[in-house]
């Protein structure tokens, strides 16, 4: 015998399945009293709303709270502060530190008045959380009597550490002047060492572009070029460059054909830029009788050019000279370089080499222009290679090549002009 339908109480018919349909809740049997079961007949199916014991809060009747009359204890507690009644009854305003809050007696719900437009509401607690009290920003130290505030050394507008730069510059100057005055042959060792370090820095820098020039033949050929220029003159300087390039090419053949053209091009650039141009220092210093004076006036003209350009650029620099190559150089700084070199060279060549002041001024202008061009040339090379300095060998200056860039272009210019202005005797 089939059981009656739990909802209607009717026996199953031919169109009703014999098996009971699964209910949406896991209880297999209905227990009396859990909720109102559907009656067999009647005008109203659900005369009284009832809910299951495990019903979710959001499924409750949304109109129950609205229809319930307000009770006196439903009003939220009043905030601290003075209370003001309007007309003896009706709205009550509470004013505290957070702003006026209005409570309506009819509804019992608070209404916060909006702040005026443009008022400072403080940081947004969602997008800009307030740091916890007692914490200070990361990376800063609270100063006290025992631990005074630390001050970082500024690099200035020129981007240098001036005390270190001045100290290193004076040391390099002494390393050049002392051998020239007391033992000129020792200056040959200084020039050869500077060329070797410059070749190493250049070879190290061009490796960033994928080129690998052989370092051993470049350094050996560079030192040989300086020695030939010192003892045999200008023709031997060209011979030294040729020997350096050929020796580098033969050495590179042992590594195979892969990247040969690229490596040989980089090696040739280094051989011309460092030992060949640096060899003119040996030619100037090796001149009979007044060799040390020639190299001295050339170096002083370069130093005056750099110093005048730096001072004028920092003080009056407004219009950039070559922003895509060297953004810190300005036309005002260039004018300062030319002026300082011209005035100083006019005095030096007149006193030391007995050259007319106007020719000395022309010498200073030419050396200054060549020095600026050399500085721009190395800046273009560094920008192409993606490096800021050739190395960090000299504090406040970068690498040695960062100091030799202007000197290397000024040396052949000074040599040619001094050959005209002061013919070599003997």
Question: What does this 3D model show about the protein?
Answer:
The protein has 426 residues and is mainly alpha-helical. It has a domain at 162-421. It contains 10 helices and 6 strands. It has a 4-stranded antiparallel β-sheet, with no helix packed on it. Strands 5-6 form a two-stranded antiparallel sheet. A hairpin with a 6-residue loop joins strand 1 and strand 2 (92-96). Helix 7 crosses helix 10. It is globular, with a radius of gyration of 45 Å.
Question: What does the average pLDDT come to?
Answer: 75
Question: Compute the gyration radius: what is it?
Answer: 45 Å
Q: Topology as H/E string?
A: HEEEEHHHHHHEEHHH
Characterize the overall form: globular
Distance between the termini: 142 Å
Q: Please summarize the sheet with the most strands.
A: 4 strands, antiparallel
What structural category characterises the helix and strand content? mainly alpha
* Order of strands, widest sheet: 1-2-3-4
Strand content: 5-15%
How many β strands by DSSP? 6
Query: Unreliable segments (pLDDT under 50, ≥5 consecutive)?
Result: 28-49, 85-112, 149-158
Count of DSSP helices? 10
**Proportion in helices:** 40-55%
């Amino acid at each position: 015998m089939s059981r009656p339908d739990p909802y209607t109480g009717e026996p199953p018919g031919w169109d009703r399945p014999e098996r009971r349909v699964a209910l949406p809740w896991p209880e297999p049997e209905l227990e009396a009293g859990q909720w109102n079961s559907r009656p067999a007949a009647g005008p109203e199916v659900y005369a009284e709303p009832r809910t299951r014991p495990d019903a979710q809060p959001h499924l409750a009747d949304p109109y129950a709270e609205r229809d319930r009359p307000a009770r006196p204890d439903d009003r939220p507690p009043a905030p601290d502060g003075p209370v003001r009644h309007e007309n003896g009854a009706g709205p009550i305003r509470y004013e505290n530190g957070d702003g006026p809050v209005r409570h309506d007696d009819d509804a019992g719900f608070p209404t916060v008045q909006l702040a005026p437009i443009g008022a400072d509401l403080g940081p947004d607690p969602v997008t800009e959380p307030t740091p916890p009290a007692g914490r200070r920003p990361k990376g800063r130290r609270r100063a006290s009597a025992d631990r005074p505030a630390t001050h970082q050394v500024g690099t200035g507008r020129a981007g240098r550490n001036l005390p270190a730069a001045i100290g290193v510059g004076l040391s390099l100057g002494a390393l050049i002047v002392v051998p020239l005055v007391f033992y000129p042959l020792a200056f040959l060792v200084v020039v050869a060492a500077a060329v070797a370090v410059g070749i190493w820095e250049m070879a190290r820098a061009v490796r960033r572009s994928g080129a690998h020039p052989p370092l051993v033949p470049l350094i050996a050929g560079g030192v040989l070029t300086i020695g030939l220029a010192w003892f045999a003159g200008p023709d031997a300087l060209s011979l030294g460059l040729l020997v350096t390039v050929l020796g580098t090419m033969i050495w590179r053949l042992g590594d195979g054909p892969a990247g040969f053209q690229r490596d040989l091009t980089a090696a040739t650039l280094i051989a011309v830029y460092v030992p060949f141009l640096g060899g003119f220092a040996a030619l100037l210093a090796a001149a009979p009788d007044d060799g040390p004076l020639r190299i001295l006036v050339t170096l002083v003209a370069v130093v005056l050019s750099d110093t005048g350009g730096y001072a004028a650029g920092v003080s009056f620099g407004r219009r950039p000279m070559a922003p895509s190559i060297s953004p810190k150089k300005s036309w005002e700084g260039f004018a300062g370089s030319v002026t300082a070199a011209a005035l100083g060279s006019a005095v030096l060549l007149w006193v030391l080499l007995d050259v007319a002041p106007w020719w000395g001024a022309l010498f200073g202008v030419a050396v200054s222009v060549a020095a600026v061009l050399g500085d721009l040339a190395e800046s273009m090379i560094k920008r192409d290679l993606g490096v800021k300095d050739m190395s960090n060998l000299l504090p406040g200056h970068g690498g040695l090549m960062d100091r030799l860039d202007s000197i290397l272009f000024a040396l052949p210019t000074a040599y040619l002009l001094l050959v005209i202005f002061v013919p070599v005797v003997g």
